[in-house]
Amino acid sequence: MKKKGFIIAMDGPAGVGKSTIGQWVAKSLGYYFVNTGEMYRALTWKALEKKLDVSDEKKVVKLAHQIHWEFRPSSDGVTLKTFVDDVPVSAHIRDERVGAFSSQVASYPGVRKFFCKLQRILGKDGGVVMEGRDITTHVFPNADFKIYLDASVEERAKRRYHQLKAAGQDANWGKIKEAILKRDLGDLKRKINPLSFAKDAVLIDSTHMSRRAVAQKILKMVRHRRAKL
pTM of the prediction? Predict the structure, then answer.
């Protein structure tokens, strides 16, 4: 069966702008965009709602299998949003409680194995931009395009700081940087499918680049290959 388009896989550390860049690229190409981190947060939210002990890996994995998962296009027609038992969870998963436990939930081998299957189903026909931590190395190691986005921790903290301030929230650059470093360490040292750089991925350091410029660089690569087909 002919694919609907390319599979564009994107990995990178926290705060590097994968979601914004991925959405721009997907919209420009008429593709779907999938933020896999939303899935782990959604499972965490459901576990907390059911008052499940999130430190009990077996119970969390069992819950993942029991949930009815759906991924529906949002109003922009680009981003696939996560629905858990028919409930749209985008607003719920931004809760601080969810953020505090989602990394732990995402570290469970059974959880990652479960979501890997879902992610492969979502992207198997192509026409998708998918971002996460192990998309280029594990979920789609044979993706048409494999991008690793990076930026210095200082720059990522600065971007997050300005994002929070623009939203009218209190922000402390030092604490933000510390949280990012902690998140990086957890991603890199995770036992199953840790964040790593695929040898055949294209590395884009966005420390001194705007997100728009990064998106345009990726689009140029895609359009160049498409023109050759």
Answer: 0.92
Q: How does pLDDT run across 108-132, given as a tens digit for each residue?
A: 999 999 999 999 999 999 999 999 9
User: In the chain, what are the domains?
Assistant: 1-31+126-223 (3.40.50.300), 38-125 (3.40.50.300)
pLDDT digits (tens, 9 = 90+) for 151-171: 999 999 998 888 888 878 888
Asked if 59 contacts 108 with a C-beta cutoff of 8 angstroms, the reply is no
For residue 165, the SS3 value is: helix
Instruction: Compute how many other C-beta atoms are within 10 angstroms of the C-beta atom of residue 95.
Output: 13
Sheet (strand 69-73) strand order: 69-73, 80-84, 87-88
C-alpha of 211 from chain center: 16
Contact 33, 152 (CB under 8 A): no
